[in-house]
Design goal:
This protein has a two-stranded antiparallel sheet with strand order 1-2. A hairpin with an 8-residue loop joins strand 1 and strand 2. It is elongated. By secondary structure, the protein is of the alpha+beta class. The chain has 3 helices and 2 strands, in the order αααββ. The protein has one domain.
Length: 75
């Protein structure tokens, strides 16, 4: 999540592929599961002090369609 953010991608893109590949995961087929993942990623990023800046498209090929983008907190 932090690495994805540092590259200018949404935080969820840092775990999207892993969540979709997990055995028994409904992440790809269930929108509610993707929404919950997005909520939890955003919650974790905020707890680490990151600042939400916008919601925009996920990278091509992602299971999720939209996600939150964050920026590093000011020092």
């Amino acid at each position: 999540m932090v690495l994805a953010t540092s590259k200018g991608h949404p935080a969820l893109s840092g775990v999207d592929e892993c969540l979709g590949a997990a055995p028994g995961s409904d992440y790809i087929s269930d929108g509610a599961v993707r929404a919950e993942a997005g909520f939890r990623v955003a919650q974790e990023m905020k707890e680490m002090g990151f600042i939400e800046v916008r919601v925009d498209d996920m990278p091509h090929g992602s299971a999720a369609h939209k996600a939150k983008f964050f920026q590093f907190p000011p020092i």
